[in-house]
Amino acid sequence: SEAYASGELKHGTISLIEDGTLVVPENVTSIGKLAFANARLGAVYIGPKVTKVGEQAFFDCSMKHLYVANQTLDFSQAPLIFGSSALETIHAPKGSKAEAYAKANGYVYEEWDGTDYGKTSYTLTLDAGEGAFLQTAQSVRYTVSADRKTAVREV
User: Fold this and answer.
1) I need a labelling partner for 87 at 20 to 30 A (CA). Which of 11, 19, 80, 136 fits?
2) Sequence-ordered alpha helix ranges (H) in 1-122
3) What is the rounded distance in angstroms from the CA atom of residue 71 to the CA atom of residue 149?
4) What's this model's pTM, rounded to 2 decimal places?
């Protein structure tokens, strides 16, 4: 088994639902370079306080749906953010920068007001940094420690 913990997400709560949906915690303000590169996820929810996303953050990520709660989050500032990814639909508030990005870059846009952000059934607390979820598979299982600070990948 492998243990996961490292640096830049800083004390966030990562929520995973059984279908591979990842909910970035509401208190997170930025997502680092390559953070979810090669991750095998069904969907990702980005919280309302995220104001910056690093280059190639979702490079080659299998997610098809991205939910963005922040009106002003601008993906155009992150080179190759969705390069080689399977992203099809961006869900975001009407009039948001994410809506403009979706329409300008050939993604389907669906209006989403963010009111159901973070409603999940499984929560685990980690410190995570650059490349922390590299090559994560949605079928992977993790055992969470009693203090909810460590997740160990089951092999």
Assistant:
1) 11
2) 97-104
3) 31
4) 0.68
Cβ pair 16, 144 in contact under 8 A: no
Alpha carbons 91 and 84: distance in angstroms, whole number: 19
- Opening angle at CA 8, ends 75 and 38, nearest 5: 60
74-89 per-position pLDDT tens digit:
999 898 999 999 999 9
Report the SS3 class of residue 99: helix
* Spatial CB neighbours of 94, under 8 Å, sequence gap ≥ 6: 111
Q: Which long-range contacts (CB under 8 A, 24 or more apart) does 137-144 make?
A: 137/40, 138/19, 138/20, 138/40, 138/41, 138/42, 138/62, 139/20, 139/40, 140/40, 142/4, 143/1
Instruction: Tell me the sheet residues that pair with 31.
Output: 53
Question: What is 51-67 written as a DSSP string?
Answer: -EE-TTTTTT---SEEE
